[in-house]
Write a structure and sequence with these properties.
36% of the residues are buried. Helix 3 packs across helix 4. The chain is α/β, with parallel strands linked by helices. Strand 1 and strand 2 form a beta hairpin. The N and C termini lie far apart (84 Å). It contains 9 helices and 8 strands. It has an 8-stranded mixed β-sheet with strand order 1-2-4-3-5-6-7-8, sandwiched between helices.
Length: 298
């Protein structure tokens, strides 16, 4: 082979090698840059000024954030929490829904200086918030106390709820009717006994006590009241929840159009302990037509 061809081939190989190495380095640099960008711009759900604002609702200011577009999906957090509770699942749902995470009255960024608090008040707030946001109706997802609020919202404002999914709700605040696991109730009682005679001096202490007492004294909802819920409902319970599975079964039985999902190897926080399964099940529930199997003869 002539020498000039050998030199030409070697020169071309060197150029290809340099090009290949350059592309590899660029890809690595791009990947590192992208990952760093994601890490630097992680969305602070529940504390994101770019997505949140205050709404005038029933005499107070309710803080809420919005993400995504599509069918509205209202997420309601548990006792003493905030919209931050849904940070793990908002990114997924925001791809196809208009996700709304709101801080309930006297919790998170929503201030309420009144001396009373009830699940009915919070449910009415949620309905009024949807009105204030010009939303006729929405899917509703509630966790723990948020699950109770979701049920009460569907009972008191049926036109506002297209479908509801709730996890970890109870209808009575004690263990006398197999609702609360007795050991969990004892912990709540211990807190109550230790603090009932305590002098509350600051507004923060008074508010914290008011919120804690919400779960000690409430809810007080008869099973028969659930029959007012007409929308398809998904009742979720961990098999090791702080509320007995039998209680969730009773809730399920008293809602005409309902599914029941008992999550294996899960405590009260089904959404956090089994996030991927939780997302899949609730998303499928919201998207698929409801099939009434309760009247099927097997």
């Amino acid at each position: 082979m002539p020498e000039r061809y050998i030199k030409s081939t070697l020169h071309m190989l060197k150029k290809l090698i340099h090009l290949f190495l350059g592309l590899c380095l660029s890809a690595v640099a791009f990947s590192q840059s992208a990952n760093q960008s994601i890490a630097d711009t992680a969305t602070p759900y529940g504390d994101n000024p770019a997505a949140g604002r205050y709404y005038s609702v029933r005499g107070i200011k309710i803080y809420a954030e919005e993400y995504g577009t599509g069918m509205p999906l209202l997420m309601i957090h548990g006792n003493g929490g905030s919209g931050k509770a849904f940070g793990k699942i908002v990114p997924y749902f925001a791809k196809n829904y208009r996700v709304i995470i709101a801080d309930s009255r006297a919790q998170g960024k929503s201030v309420d200086t009144g001396d009373s608090l009830s699940f009915e008040m919070i449910a009415d707030d949620e309905a009024a918030l949807l009105d204030e946001m010009h939303i006729d109706s929405a899917y509703v997802l509630g966790a723990s106390d948020g699950g109770i609020v979701a049920l009460v919202l569907a009972m008191r404002h049926p036109g506002k709820v297209v479908k509801l999914a709730e996890t970890g709700a109870d209808l009575v605040p004690d263990s006398t009717s197999i609702a609360v696991v007795h050991s969990s109730w004892l912990k709540e009682k211990e807190f109550y006994d230790e603090n009932i005679n305590r002098t509350l001096t600051t507004e923060e202490e008074k508010n914290h006590w008011k919120v804690k007492m919400l779960d000690w004294r409430q809810p007080n909802i008869p099973f028969s009241a659930l029959e007012a819920i007409k929308c398809p409902s998904l009742i979720i319970s961990g098999d090791h929840d702080m509320f007995n599975v039998e209680h969730a079964v009773q809730i399920y039985h008293h809602i005409h159009r309902a599914y029941l999902w008992v999550v294996p190897n899960s405590g009260h926080g089904t959404m956090h302990e089994h996030t991927d399964d939780f997302i899949k099940m609730t998303d499928n529930f919201f998207n698929e037509p409801f099939k009434d199997r309760k009247n099927y003869i097997l």
